[in-house]
Design brief:
The protein is 23% helix and 35% strand. It is α+β, with helices and mostly antiparallel strands and 363 residues long. The strands form 4 sheets. It has a 6-stranded mixed β-sheet with strand order 7-8-9-3-10-11, with helices on both faces. The termini are far apart.
């Protein structure tokens, strides 16, 4: 497997900006570094700039300012007016539509880029056979795209993208056309293949679960800006902004005022006067206004052992989700979302664990 691609290199983006119609900022001074061999997902709502970023990396769009390089290989440098055409960037790309040639066999589709590069036919045959075995399609090499399932077509598109030994692999929502079950399976094998190849990969998606499951790091974007760039666990458990906390996972927000700060346990007051204990490493100031966030799965139904951080409420609605129940609980501080394994109704006492309360800047 080691001879399928070049030694991997990292991707560096510095001060990337792009405007449309001289007013709308698609990218606003974006900078980040991806280490060699990492899979990084660009995640955010429609219009956040993730696809524009991918297109700038691919050479499909010209940024107004900034530099892009893979290792020491410069793709774009606006200050030096350097802009390599897509075909000169040595990148592999998989689109949502797969873009397979319908009149070519699987083997011919995968080998197309090698033929364009005028690689010897004997080497093309060997490399195509090797990559098709890697993606589990060696037995369908002579079939045509219309004879394959959606998942198999997606694998052909991936094989075609990596067989040319690209410096970088770009994936633009490649699983979006698959149904839920196949998509979950594809997520697993795609990540496995990426790890085995060791190729640096940029993955664009709006699917939170996909990004959390597959990525070494996630770049969360909003309105052309980078909100947070970190590991999936840090993104989920320690969101840097309210936008990140709101976009990823089901989160309830509570406005609060700091009453007392201590290195390990601080006290805050909610709008109705309820006092809560919060465990945070952030330095808080007395009387500071903050937002608290808590994930619905971290909210608990209180037991007799819980004496602090308990709020009385009443369940207003319940949804059965198969493995759990999702309840909306009305309290004096507003509605809270609570998850339980068993059906619960009526009046309840809600416990908000101090370590589960995320401290965010006030909106």
């Amino acid at each position: 497997m080691s001879n399928i691609h070049h030694d991997s290199a990292g991707l560096t983006i510095e001060h990337l900006s792009k405007m449309y119609n001289r007013s709308a900022k698609a990218l606003d001074d974006l900078s980040l570094s991806i280490q060699a061999g990492e899979l990084v997902s660009f995640l955010g709502p429609s219009g956040c700039g993730k696809t524009t970023t991918l297109n700038c990396i691919a050479g499909l769009e010209h940024p107004d300012t900034g530099t892009i390089r893979v290792g020491d290989f410069v793709l774009t440098d606006s200050a030096k007016k350097l802009f390599l055409q897509p075909e000169d960037r040595q990148l592999g790309m998989v689109f949502q539509s797969y873009a397979l040639w319908p009149h070519m066999t699987v083997a011919d589709n995968v080998g197309f880029g090698l033929r364009v590069a005028k690689i010897a036919s004997s080497e093309i045959k060997q490399r195509v056979a090797t990559i098709l075995e890697l993606v589990g399609l060696g037995h369908v090499a002579e079939r045509y795209p219309f004879q394959l399932s959606g998942g198999q077509q997606q694998r052909v598109a991936l094989a075609r993208a990596v067989v040319t030994e690209p410096r970088l692999l770009l994936l633009d929502e490649p699983l979006s056309n698959l149904d839920a079950k196949v998509r979950e399976q594809a997520r697993t094998w795609l990540r496995d293949i990426q790890k085995r190849l060791g190729i640096t990969t940029v993955y664009v998606t709006h699917d939170q679960a996909e990004a959390l499951a597959m990525s070494d790091k996630i770049a969360v974007m909003s309105a052309g800006k980078l909100e947070q760039f970190d590991t999936p666990q840090a993104i989920y458990e320690q969101p840097a902004t309210r936008f990140v906390a709101e976009f990823i996972g089901a989160t309830t927000f509570l406005p609060a005022t700091v009453v007392q700060h201590a290195p390990t346990l601080s006290q805050v007051s909610l709008s109705d006067g309820t006092c809560l204990e919060v465990r945070t490493a952030l330095k808080l100031q007395q009387h500071q206004t903050i937002d608290l966030g808590i994930r619905s799965e971290r909210v608990q139904v209180a037991t007799s052992d819980h004496q602090t951080n308990v709020i009385a409420g009443a369940i207003r609605s319940s949804d059965y989700l198969g493995a759990k129940w999702h309840h909306q609980v009305e309290t004096t501080i507003g509605a809270l979302m609570v998850e339980t394994l068993d059906y619960t109704s009526g009046n309840v006492r809600i416990y908000l664990p101090p370590e589960a309360l995320m401290v965010l800047k006030a909106a």
